[in-house]
Amino acid sequence: MRVCVSFVFDFPFKNPIEPNNFKTNSLMFSTRTLPLLPFILFLSTGGCQPEPYSQGEVLYKYHCENCHMEDGSGLGKLIPPLDSSRLTLSDPVKLVCLIRNGLPVNKLTGQQMPANLKLNEVEMTNLVNFLGSKYASNPQTVIVPEVKKMLAGCQTD
Amino acid sequence: MKNILRFTEISLISFLVLTGCGNEPHRLPYLGNLEMKGSDTLYHTVPDITLTDQDSQTYRISTLDNKIILADFFFTSCPSICPKVKKQMLRLYERYKDDDRVVMISHTIDQRHDSVAVLNRYAHNLGVDTDKWKFVTGEKDSIFYLADQYFVSVIEDPLAPAGFDHSGRIILVDKARRVRGFCEGTDPESVTAFFDTIDKLLKDEYQ
After folding, report:
1. Regions of chain B short of the pLDDT cut 50
2. How far is CA B50 from CA B8, B59, B129, in A?
3. Of B83, B90, B121, the CB nearest to A66
């Protein structure tokens, strides 16, 4: 974290446009640096930490990305995009069971969503939180014991 | 010392100028083995096998008049790489859909499941014009042989997801059915570079 902070404060000095024009005292408050403030704040908070739900992202790559694509855009009418399924993505109970059981063959498209029986409750939690944070309009964070209950409640045919 | 530098500079510049002007413009390679017949060179060509398209019509690439082909091999129930390759095929489709010199052909490698009706539904749901982009099936042996001739590996493997192991290559074939290039359909960057290859072939073939 210290590396990041020093980087943040070093940054204006390395401005390639006017390298000699900065004064250390007025640095953070000058009108010139004001527009940079959001960027500096971003660097000092999110920019230095790993992405939230990074395991969820890895799981998404491995289990979902081949069909739903890296950006969640899906494929025509064959594979639905994730951002249009906001309702399901906002409701972790539905989402957990959807991922666990998949979907039967859709008569209109002939496509089906495969079940994911190998994901354990920790992986499922990370995946659901990642999906929620990225695509849900109203993301709800879940914890492992909740997901364990949800999984137990999923009806398998 | 100054003279030596001067001399190197001049010779380097003239070398660059001479070689730059002397060469023919770079052409795309012909992929596959060459055969010599007398004084003629025979290039590898893709066989003209009778196929059936998504509308139950007979389809032969020899009937394509004056067109270049973009081909891939897939199956509709494929859970692994096919959707990604199809996404990239869609990019190619969008780019060349108004260019009558280009046709696209997707061959199914799962003839048991992918009937004509299934292929038709797939094309419809993908939302593409089937005059431009054909979805074809045929005898299993023919299609597997065809894939081999297109340099795409297709293997039936009970251990693979949904029973097939296959490569996601997209193949570029010229008007004379010679293979002139390919890209990896699973890699968007490879497909972006492929745009240039296709444009180059179009330029060479339709001067």
Report:
1. 18, 20-22
2. 62, 6, 21
3. B83
In this prediction the pTM is 0.75
Q: Which domains does chain A have, with CATH numbers?
A: 17-45 (no CATH), 54-153 (1.10.760.10)
Q: Quick one: DSSP state of residue B28?
A: P
Q: How far is CA B85 from CA A42, A85, A139, B29, B76, in A?
A: 36, 23, 31, 24, 12
- Separation in Å, CA of A144 to nearest CA in chain B: 28
CA distance B74 to chain A (A): 14
For residues B41, B46, B50, B55, the Cα torsion angle rounded to the nearest 10 degrees is -140
Contact between B45 and B150 under an 8 Å Cβ cutoff? The reply is no
Q: Find all residues with CB under 8 Å of B56, minimum gap 6, and list them.
A: B116
Contacts of A67 in chain B (CB under 8 A): 79, 83
Cα A7 from Cα A13, distance rounded (Å): 10
Chain B residues near residue A110 by CB distance under 8 angstroms: 76-77, 118, 121-122, 125
Tokens of A78: 């064959």
Q: Which residues, in sequence order, are CB contacts of B28 under 8 Å at separation 6+?
A: B180, B181, B197, B200, B201, B204
Distance from CA of B182 to the nearest CA of A (A): 21
For residue A19, the SS3 value is coil
Quickly tell me which residue has 């944070």 as its tokens.
Answer: A133
**What pLDDT, in 10s, does the model give residues A57-90?**
999 999 999 999 999 999 999 999 998 776 677 7
Q: From the list A78, A112, A114, which residue is nearest B122 (CB)?
A: A78
Q: State the count of interchain CB pairs (< 8 A) between A and B.
A: 45
The tokens describing B56, both together, are 């139950």
DSSP-derived pairing of the beta strands B68-74 and B102-108: parallel
Quick one: what percent of chain A has pLDDT higher than 90? 44
